[in-house]
């Protein structure tokens, strides 16, 4: 089996590190030459001030991506307030005989110090906040089982639920025809019911479609949207999915929004671009409140039925990237968004995959059709 890495991303990271190393070396050399008298003292001082400014920016950006919109506003406020107070203090305490350059140098130093302290404080406060994301194992039954078989499968999952940690949230998504009977079979358990799709319209002359309101009326709490098979076989686009997302939220359904690249896109090194576009074109249109009730599922379409295989490390890499893209829009809230792995997750590899920092569970296909396997996957989470 062939494994695919992300050489372009790795090469980009290596290039960034080389540039950072070069800048650090240049600053140290310039400072040394300035101290040794080879370069003017003011030049060395300017270099060190620029280095401090760079550190301030880097720390501020690190904190920025962990913050909500409200928290970002406070970061900006306290940064300006601290800098303003520092500059005012320097002007008030500066000796009368100080030169213009000396005053300017002291003001810059004070502002940078205040900014650094503010940025460091925010990084400490919001560093390594505990992972409170839901652990989710969702079963996508696809077009499998007859209604009576679906009921028996659901009953089997309910019967074995107690063997799995209560911290794991189970969801079953049977075909439309089974929903009512499966909902009955799940009564009294904490297993949630989900649907595999919903209509883009609320109601009307749309033969064969099932409205989100109908799913909610049957007891559904979740709905899978944007699955690779829907995109590939039924031509679902971001425009369609935006309408479906709107319908889901209007009926209090939590979308399990699927993203992922095919083999051609993966081999061409476009996987990050594809996934980013799928998020930007749909998820970026959500409000902050809607985003709090969203589950993302990554499908490595390139590794499904192609003879290729995705490793746990590759799953972590793309999940971490997805979270980074989400953070660019929603800040710290991205840290609370569950991201499920939609590849070939089985009892044998669940623990390895779920151990990864940014993998919060799985969207399970074939293994969800056997109650024992489905439950065993749930046991893959570390307690």
Q: What's the short story on this structure?
A:
The chain is an alpha/beta fold and 383 residues long. It has helices at 7-35, 41-64, 69-93, 100-125, 147-160, 179-186, 212-217, 228-234, 238-250, 263-267, 271-280, 288-291, 312-330, 350-354, 371-378, and strands at residues 135-140, 168-173, 192-195, 222-225, 254-259, 295-298, 339-341, 361-364.
Rounded radius of gyration (Å): 26 Å
**What composes the largest sheet?**
8 strands, parallel
Number of helices: 15
Query: Could you give the order of the helices and strands?
Result: HHHHEHEHEHEHHEHHHEHEHEH
* Uncertain parts: 1-10
The total beta strand count reads 8
Overall morphology? elongated
What's the arrangement of strands in the largest beta sheet?
A: 7-6-5-4-3-2-1-8
Structural class: alpha/beta
Structure commentary:
With about 375 residues, this protein is α/β, with parallel strands linked by helices. It is about 55% helix and about 10% strand. It is built from 15 helices and 8 strands. It has helices at about 5-35, 40-65, 70-95, 100-125, 145-160, 180-185, 210-215, 230-235, 240-250, 265, 270-280, 290, 310-330, 350-355, 370-380; strands at about 135-140, 170-175, 190-195, 220-225, 255-260, 295-300, 340, 360-365. Strands 7-6-5-4-3-2-1-8 form an 8-stranded parallel sheet. β3, α7 and β4 form a beta-alpha-beta unit. α2 packs parallel to α4, α3 packs antiparallel against α4 (about 100-125) and α11 (about 270-280) packs parallel to α13. The radius of gyration is 26 Å and the shape is elongated.
